[in-house]
Specification:
By secondary structure, this protein is an alpha+beta fold. The protein has a single domain (4-108), classed as 2-Layer Sandwich (GMP Synthetase, Chain A, domain 3). It contains three helices and three strands; from the N terminus they run H-E-E-H-E-H. A three-stranded mixed β-sheet has the order 1-2-3. Strand 2, helix 2 (54-78) and strand 3 (86-91) form a beta-alpha-beta unit. The longest helix has 25 residues, at 54-78. It is globular and about 55 Å long. The N and C termini lie far apart (51 Å).
């Protein structure tokens, strides 16, 4: 059996490829930052960042939800899994948090 962390890395690469090359909606500058599969294989959390303001983020969220079924189908075709869990896209705001911390450090200096 494939280790989950290895599987998550493979799926991260596959999802990035699907989004950049096959999803018809314009998702802008999106990066898949990680994938986490729950222990019972019921859910697959796909974390992403997108360059832009709140309006761009909202458009990206809508486009990802619209493409959810297509992306899941493509994962099923490309990755060897008995069952592909339900996909849940989550915005990864760690970059923004890091920027805020960096700004605070700069103000202190």
């Amino acid at each position: 059996m494939v280790k989950v962390s290895h599987l998550e890395t493979d799926i991260q690469r596959v999802v990035a490829d699907i989004i950049h090359n096959e999803v018809k909606d314009n998702l802008g500058f999106i990066t898949i930052t990680g994938v986490k599969i729950t222990n019972e294989l019921s859910y697959m959390y796909i974390y992403y960042t997108v360059f832009g303001d709140a309006k761009v983020l909202e458009k990206t969220e809508i486009a990802l939800e619209r493409a959810n079924g297509f992306i899941k189908n493509q994962i099923a075709q490309r990755v060897k899994m008995r069952k592909v869990p339900a996909l849940i896209f989550k915005y990864d705001d760690s970059y923004n948090k890091g920027q805020k911390v960096e700004d605070i450090i700069r103000k202190i200096k």
